[in-house]
Amino acid sequence: MIRQENSSSYQELNEDMECGPANSEPLDEVDQEDTSSTILPGIALYPGQAELLTCKHHFYDYIPPLVNPGQPGKIDCITQRINYTDPFTNTTKKHAVIVKGPQNVKKRELVFMQFHLNETDQDFSAIDYLLFSSFQEFLNSPNKSEFMKVCESSYSSWKFSGGFRTWVKMSLVKTKEENGLMAVEFRQEISVVNYIERRTKADTDQLFFVVFEWKDPFIQEVQDIVTANPWNMIALLCGIFLALFKAADFAKLSVKWMIKIRKRHLKRKTQALNHIS
């Protein structure tokens, strides 16, 4: 089986991954400039006991300095809160905060979020998240809880820890399988920077910072081409037999060479003994 990989821009794949109908929620003014050439990912976060303090969209890889870290601020993102049952256990209730991801790739749009955890009895603290390919499909879904259960079953989840700013650069990979279906997955490059704590009263609480951004304006397309047929199997068997024949011939020559060396050694030893006598 041969795997071919191609890259194409978001604009070229816009027909395959439509952003949604005209009667959906209005986007920001900046987003409307580039709606026809970008896709709209969704970010599902599972904060647990942590609280979302701020969420903002920025551009050109610039994040302004923090103002009153640890205090509630503006949430300028489109968010929704969903409760659903864990698809793997069917008993655990999960609480997710769904956020519209970065859209304007040309202007290097990013989403910056800050979470606050007051106190915890756990030894380690982290917030889980997963990425899915279409936030607009989530908005249009009549059963959003079931939609998130399917997403959690289909996509991988990651974590970001408290006390750091985790910068996630996303890339999208579309794989065309043998049956003709298209599978979509996210790949990430993550960088972590330590947060310098300057607050005077920060003994028990913890802050989480996370940034989501597209890595580049391309989607990677992977297609599997099956090349297995009877002639390939015959060629493979011929190659195996040829390799075995070569190995046997090499072993035969090695044995002959070792016998020859042994005889030469015994001959020299006999000559040396005769000379001593």
From TrEMBL:
Region (Disordered): 1-34
Membrane protein topology class: Multi-pass membrane protein
Polar residues bias: start-end ranges: 1-12
One CC-aspect GO term: chloride channel complex
Transmembrane annotation, as ranges: none
UniProt KW keywords: Cell membrane, Chloride, Chloride channel, Ion channel, Ion transport, Membrane, Transmembrane, Transmembrane helix, Transport
GO molecular function: chloride channel activity
Reactions mediated catalytically: chloride(in) = chloride(out)
One protein family per Pfam: TMEM206
Claim: Transport is one of the keywords in the record: yes
Compartment(s) of residence: Cell membrane
Superkingdom of the organism of origin: Eukaryota
Family membership noted in the UniProt record: Belongs to the proton-activated chloride channel family.
The name this protein goes by in its record: Proton-activated chloride channel
Annotated source species: Pantherophis guttatus
Upper taxonomic lineage: Eukaryota, Metazoa, Chordata, Craniata, Vertebrata
